[in-house]
Amino acid sequence: MLLVCTTFPLIWVGGLVTTKKAGMAVPDWPNTYGYNLFLYPVSEWIAGPFDLFVEHGHRLLGSAVGMISIALVVAIAIWDKRRGMLTLSIISLIAVIIQGILGGARVIQDEVLLARVHGCFGPAFFALTVGLAVATSKRWHSIQPVVHPGSGRLQVITVITAALAYVQLLIGSFLRHVPASGSHSDFRVAVIFHVIVAFLVAVSVFAVAATALRGFSEAVAVRRQSMFAVLIVLVQIGLGIAAWTFKYGWPTFLPGGEMFSQLVIHAESVAQAGVVTAHVATGSLIVGVTVAMALYSFRYYSTSPASLVPQVADKSTLRGVSL
């Protein structure tokens, strides 16, 4: 859980780096203006320009996530005897290393494509940390799977929902990192698809909630998470409209434009940066929650009676001590 709780703020700060166009505030990597990353003077970091403060802070927080990932691998190797968990923890460590290299390459090359890949890979890593937290939780170990005739439907819907949520992030990344060669029509098409997929994500999340609440009383975690997903999707829709309004004005396809006709938002203002960054981070949160729903839907229900033989974890298994 510690890894999840540090990765999510990292996504917030990373989103702020992009929003404030601070990605090139520190021109070298892995150093910071010639200093070792961890030896850069705190006084210069705190008192320096805001873009430097954000970018260097992003690097420090990313390093902390990397260290926690190393600790997680060690902890699972010692206390959790499930081979798959050790493999997943190693994959997460490799993923955070790759993400760090992508971030560094983005600085060295100053390339929009690398910035986009870096922005898409972060939420994928966050989803992986959520999966690790779920699989090492007390709730996960306490669940006794049962056979349910409609479980396949619930599992399919949750997987589709998680996939749609991530696809939505990919489209959003294109809108955030528009290439120099991109045309107005390319941007318009991306916006249209972003709106369409947002609608599909909302419908899918509501479908999961309706399905889980109607006939799956055993799946307590899925039911609770589906309701939380409904809430954050509604918040995300509001943030999306607000982000567009703060950057481009009130959407012309929505009523009430006259109310905002005199609204003036300064580019890269605190309000604009806060709303846009919150929209980005909430998108990653939706991915994390939907991944957790999908995992729990498979944990609660088995497709065959033969698979109900419990795989008892070793007493030394991590139980709720997920780093």
UniProtKB/TrEMBL annotation:
What are the GO cellular component annotations?
Answer: membrane
Does Repeat appear among the keywords? no
Describe which pathway this protein belongs to, using the record's wording: Porphyrin-containing compound metabolism
How is this protein positioned relative to the membrane? Multi-pass membrane protein
Which UniProt key words apply to this protein?
Cell membrane, Disulfide bond, Heme biosynthesis, Iron, Membrane, Metal-binding, Oxidoreductase, Transmembrane, Transmembrane helix
Please give the chief subcellular localization of this protein. membrane
Is Transmembrane among this UniProt entry's keywords? yes
Q: Where in the cell is it found?
A: Membrane
What are the recorded GO MF terms, alphabetically? metal ion binding; oxidoreductase activity
Q: Which InterPro entries match?
A: COX15/CtaA_fam, COX15/CtaA_HemeA_synthase
Q: Which GO terms describe its biological process?
A: heme A biosynthetic process
Q: Membrane-spanning regions, if any? A: 60-79, 86-108, 114-135, 156-175, 187-216, 228-250, 270-296
Q: Which PANTHER family match?
A: HEME A SYNTHASE (PTHR35457)
Its name, as the record gives it, is Heme A synthase
Give the source species: Blastopirellula retiformator
